[in-house]
Design brief:
By secondary structure, this protein is α/β, with parallel strands linked by helices. Helix content is 35%, strand content 21%. It is globular, with a radius of gyration of 24 Å. About 1% of the residues have low confidence. A hairpin with a 7-residue loop joins β16 and β17. The protein binds 6-O-phosphono-beta-D-glucopyranose. The site of 6-O-phosphono-beta-D-glucopyranose has 4 residues, from loops.
Length: 513
C-alpha cells in the first residue's frame, strides 16, 4: 500500500546571484559533440539567466578552418536541437550569446597554435578586460592533455600574473590507475591543484548535491546513518539507451570504467562520507577521499564473488525492437566489453563496517533511473508480529536522482479500523511538485562554479586516483578470468540474472528497475 504524503517546502526564496568575473572560456576540441549537446546549451542558459557578465567570451578551438560566422551557425543549430528537447528556445537570448562566440583553428600538438591562441586572447581583451581570466576546457581525448598543458605553459597562458588561469578536464580521466597518475603528473608540472577542475557531471546534478543537504542539513537522518541502523545500501544507474554513436569510445571503456569508476563511486562517497568541518572544496573532498580509502581494493579471487558483468542482447524497449550490443554499428561481433556492471563495495570504517554497498549500472535496461536506496534494519523487537495482519517491513529511504527527482521514505503505519492491522506507507518529496522550477543542467552548475573558482563539486587529484585504485584490480581480474558468455541479458530486462547473487549472499534483494 502506498499513501503519499506530499512534503511541501516551508519557505522558498530565490537565492541571490553571485557576480562572476569577466573571462574567456577556451574550449579545446570544440567540434566534438559535447559542445553542442552540453557546453553551449549550458552557457547559453547562463547568459539568458544573467549569470555571466558582458565581458564573457567563448573561444572554440578545433582542427578545421572556419569563420566565426560559420561556427556560430553550426553551434546555433546543434544547441537549439538539444535545448528544445526540454524547454522553449530563446532566439534573442541566443543572439546575445552568439556575439561572444569565436573560433580558432589549430593543431593541438603544435606549439604555434598556443602562440596564436595567446594573440587571439589579447585581441579579445583589447576591447575589454575579459582576456585576463582564462578557463581552458579540455574536451579532448586524454592523450592530448600533455600537449595542451605544455603548449599553454610555453605561451605563458598557465601563469596567473594578471588574472586567473584554470583548466577543466573532461572524463575519461585516464583508463586505469597508472594512466590517471601520469595525466595528473603532466598537468601538475604546469598547473597548481587549485587551478585544476576535473569534471564529473553527476556532481553538478541538484539531486546529487541534495544528498549532502538531506544528510547534513537535518538532524533527523544523520543519527541513524550508520551500521547500527542501516542494513545495506543500493546504488543504481540504469539506462534504456544503448551505446548510441559512441562505439569507438565504449568498446575501449565498458560500463565499469564509464560509470562505476566515477559517477557511481561519487554517489557512494556522498552517501557514506562523514560530515565535513565546513562546506568548502577541501573539507568536502577530504571526507570523500577518506571513504574511498576505507574501501580495500579487491584481491583477484574476491572479484569473482563480488562483481558481475553483463552485455545486452537484442530485445524490446518501450515497444521498440533494439539490436544486441554486438550488432551495434562499430562494435566488434565478438566484443567482450561489458554494458552492465554490478559490484559489492565494503566501506571498512567505524561507521560502515559490515554494511554492503551494492552498486549497479547498465545500458538497455527496462527503465532509465538513478537512485540510492538506503535500507534500514528491522526494529529490534517485532512488536506487532502476532497481530492479525502485520505487514511492517524495514524502513527504506530512496534518494531519487533522476527522473522524477525526489526522496521517498517507506515506513509502517496502523491501518484505520478497530483491529491492529498494519501496512507500509510512503512519504514522498518531489522536486517538481514542491519547487516547480527547472533544475539547472549539471553543466550549468559546474561551469559557473569553475568560473567562480569553487572546486567543491570537482574531483581532487587524490580522489580520482583513489577511485582508480578500486577499479583497476577489478579490470585486471576480469581480463584474467574467462569472459562470461555474452550476451547475457535481454534489452529491456533488469540485467543479467546472475547479478542477483550479489545481494543474495547476505539475504538481500535488488529493488525492481
Ligand atoms: C556519461 C557516460 O558520463 O554519463 C554515458 O559516458 C552515460 O555512457 C551518461 O550515458 C549518463 O549520464 P546521465 O546524466 O544521463 O545520467
Amino acid at each position: 500500500m502506498s499513501i503519499i504524503i506530499q512534503a511541501k517546502p516551508i519557505r522558498i526564496s530565490e537565492p541571490a546571484h553571485t557576480k562572476t568575473d569577466a573571462c574567456v572560456i577556451v574550449i579545446f576540441g570544440v567540434l566534438g559533440d559535447l559542445t553542442g549537446r552540453k557546453l553551449l546549451p549550458a552557457l547559453y542558459r547562463l547568459v539568458c539567466a544573467g549569470h555571466l557578465p558582458d565581458q564573457f567570451h567563448v573561444l572554440g578551438v578545433g582542427r578545421d578552418a572556419m569563420s566565426d560566422e560559420r561556427f556560430r551557425t553550426q553551434m546555433h543549430d546543434s544547441a537549439k536541437g538539444f535545448v528544445q528537447e526540454t524547454e522553449e528556445w530563446n532566439e534573442a537570448g541566443w543572439q546575445d550569446f552568439a556575439k561572444r562566440l569565436h573560433y580558432a583553428a589549430g593543431d593541438l600538438k603544435d606549439a604555434a597554435a598556443y602562440r596564436q591562441l595567446a594573440t587571439r586572447l589579447q585581441e579579445l581583451g583589447s576591447k575589454e578586460q575579459a582576456s585576463l581570466n582564462h578557463l581552458f576546457y579540455f574536451s579532448t581525448p586524454p592523450s592530448l592533455a600533455p600537449s595542451i598543458v605544455d603548449g599553454l605553459n610555453e605561451a605563458s597562458l598557465a601563469q596567473e600574473e594578471k588574472g586567473w588561469s584554470r583548466v577543466i578536464v573532461e572524463k575519461p580521466f585516464g583508463r586505469d590507475l597508472a594512466s590517471a597518475q601520469a595525466l595528473n603528473e603532466a598537468i601538475a608540472r604546469v598547473f597548481g591543484e587549485h587551478q585544476v577542475y576535473r569534471i564529473d557531471h553527476y556532481l553538478g546534478k541538484d539531486t546529487v548535491q541534495n544528498i549532502l543537504v538531506f544528510r547534513f542539513g537535518n538532524s533527523l537522518f544523520e543519527p541513524v546513518w550508520n551500521r547500527n541502523y542501516i542494513d545495506y545500501v543500493e546504488i543504481t544507474a540504469a539506462e534504456t539507451l544503448g551505446v548510441e554513436h559512441r562505439a569507438a569510445y565504449y568498446e575501449e571503456t565498458g560500463a565499469l570504467r564509464d560509470m562505476v569508476a566515477n559517477h557511481l563511486l561519487q554517489l557512494l562517497t556522498l552517501t557514506a562520507m562523514d560530515p565535513p568541518v565546513a562546506f568548502d572544496a577541501d573539507s568536502v573532498r577530504e571526507e570523500k577521499v577518506q571513504v574511498l580509502r576505507s574501501i580495500h581494493p579487491m584481491a583477484c579471487e574476491e572479484v569473482a564473488e563480488r562483481t558481475v558483468r553483463g552485455q545486452y542482447d537484442d530485445g524490446e524497449i518501450n515497444g521498440r525492437k533494439v539490436p544486441a550490443y554486438r550488432d551495434e554499428e562499430g562494435v566488434s561481433p565478438n566484443s567482450a566489453t561489458e554494458t552492465y556492471a554490478a559490484v559489492e563495495f565494503c566501506v571498512e570504517n567505524w561507521r560502515w563496517a559490515g554494511v554492503p554497498f551494492y552498486v549497479r549500472t547498465g545500458k538497455r535496461l527496462a527503465r532509465s533511473l538513478t537512485e540510492i536506496a538506503v535500507h534500514l534494519k528491522r526494529t529490534p523487537q517485532a512488536l506487532f508480529a502476532r497481530t492479525p495482519a502485520d505487514r511492517i517491513g524495514p524502513n527504506v529511504i530512496v534518494l531519487r536522482i533522476q527522473p522524477d527527482e525526489g526522496i521517498n521514505i517507506t515506513f509502517g503505519a496502523k491501518r484505520p479500523g478497530t483491529e491492529m492491522h498494519t501496512a507500509m506507507v510512503q512519504m514522498d518529496f518531489s522536486y517538481q511538485e514542491s519547487f516547480g522550477a527547472r533544475s539547472p543542467a549539471a553543466y550549468e552548475t559546474l561551469l559557473l562554479d569553475a568560473i567562480r573558482g569553487d572546486a567543491t563539486l570537482f574531483t581532487r587529484r587524490d580522489e580520482v586516483e583513489a577511485q582508480w585504485r578500486l577499479i583497476t584490480p577489478i579490470e585486471e581480474a576480469w581480463a584474467q578470468q574467462p569472459s562470461p558468455k555474452f550476451p547475457n541479458y535481454a534489452s529491456g530486462s533488469s540485467g543479467p540474472a546472475e547479478a542477483d547473487r550479489l545481494p543474495q549472499r547476505y539475504g538481500h534483494r535488488w529493488r525492481a528497475i
